[in-house]
Design goal:
DNA polymerase, domain 1; mainly alpha; hpI Integrase, Chain A; three-stranded antiparallel sheet
Length: about 400
């Protein structure tokens, strides 16, 4: 009895009912896979000893099944469960329950798990197996990437448990990695004005789009999906309902993302002028040179954004930093955090403070609004009291 390698794959050698059996595990000969194989072999030996070993459950595709008069059972290999799970995700996408980007991400995330555990029986994987895999996977990858993969893997095991493929969920107590702080590097007020002025003078067709991003703080996909029908020029508000994701027009990212935002006076002037030129050409507000909506920011970045920053001598930052710029400059200007959070479509204000606290802390505080409020109220009360006493 033992473990051996053949063609770079691990095999088990054991005796069952007087027959010498050789079975491939279908997994590569690695340190962690050796540990798995050792544990599996010990489990098989123990069950053989107590006459509880079921050959078809461990090796459902084995040629030895006929020898033991067994009928192959359904194979619960990880790769089969993953295929089944992905099918449920595809059904949800077709029913418009999840977005195309969510489906694509889930498939990509499970590709990592499947390439490693695909030939494992799903009920033979334990918490230590998953944690060891996470350690290997984390090399050269950001914690956020690992956590996204782990989140989908947890969904897979939750599904497997609901289907009765496993009795307990080995991923339940696997902890997420501590994530790095989000990459936030907003533009200063001076930089923002310089960028807007450059686009206004040199790229007037793209200028309204850049102004919309800076002055609303909306997500890039939300801006690209902007339509004239959602703009109310009487109240100067805009209803964000849709977004471009994966070149597809979809619903907004979250429930809170579907929101009504205010259009400030500087942007009102830009949109008034822009509407005269594009209103009858398309339902969409911002169009490319072919009169079609931008379905992604790729060409905007390459043809307009990057060259503009280089020309201005401003350190390159992604176009998404316009959103962070709006948030930081709004808070520095004294906007109500709750209002800013609603404009951005955050779930709560905690997200706002978590992301932008360090930028607000660096702002030089020159005047206390609380002090002014208290002083003014006390002054008014004293004045009223003096009038009454007279």
């Amino acid at each position: 009895m033992g473990i051996y390698q053949r063609n770079k794959k691990l095999w088990l050698n054991f005796v069952y009912k007087g027959v010498r059996c050789y079975e491939s595990l279908g997994i590569e000969d690695t340190k962690s896979n050796r540990k798995y194989a050792q544990r599996l072999l010990a489990e098989i030996q123990n069950k053989i000893e107590f006459d509880t070993f079921k050959y078809d459950e461990y090796f459902p595709n084995s040629k030895k099944l006929k020898l033991f008069n067994l009928v192959p059972t359904k194979t619960n290999y990880v790769k089969n469960v993953v295929t089944e799970f992905i099918k449920t995700k595809e059904n949800k996408y077709e029913a418009n329950i999840i977005s195309h980007s969510s489906l694509r991400n889930n498939k990509g995330e499970l590709l990592h798990f499947n390439s490693y555990f695909g030939d494992y029986l799903i009920d033979k994987i334990n918490q230590i197996d998953i944690e060891n895999w996470i350690v290997e996977l984390a090399k050269g990858r950001k914690s956020k990437t690992i956590n996204n993969i782990l989140s989908t893997v947890k969904q897979l095991f939750k599904y497997a448990k609901a289907k009765g493929y496993i009795e307990y969920d080995p991923s339940e107590n696997v902890n997420f990695l501590r994530e790095e702080k989000p990459d936030i590097e907003p533009f200063s007020l001076h930089e923002m004005n310089a960028i807007l002025e450059f686009f206004k003078e040199n790229k007037p067709k793209i200028y309204p789009l850049i102004a919309f991003l800076f002055y609303t703080g909306c997500r890039t996909g939300e801006c690209l999906a902007a339509k004239w029908e959602n703009l109310d020029s009487n109240t100067w508000t805009y209803h964000i309902k849709e977004s471009f994701s994966d070149h597809r027009l979809t619903k907004t990212k979250t429930k809170n993302s579907n929101r009504i935002i205010d259009i400030i006076p500087p942007l009102q002037e830009v949109l008034r002028s822009h509407k005269l030129k594009t209103f009858m050409k398309s339902d969409f507000m911002f169009l490319n040179q072919y009169g079609k909506p931008f379905k992604s920011s790729g060409k905007i970045l390459c043809q307009h954004w990057k060259p503009a920053l280089k020309r201005l001598g401003i350190k390159y930052r992604s176009i998404y930093q316009t959103r962070h710029t709006y948030a930081v400059l709004s808070l520095i200007a004294g906007e109500n955090p709750h209002y800013v959070s609603k404009q951005l479509g955050h779930v709560n204000m905690q997200m706002l403070f978590t992301k932008y606290a360090r930028y607000i802390e660096n702002y030089k505080h020159t005047e206390s609004k609380f002090a002014n409020y208290v002083t003014n109220v006390l002054h008014q009360e004293n004045t009223d009291s003096q009038i009454i006493n007279k």
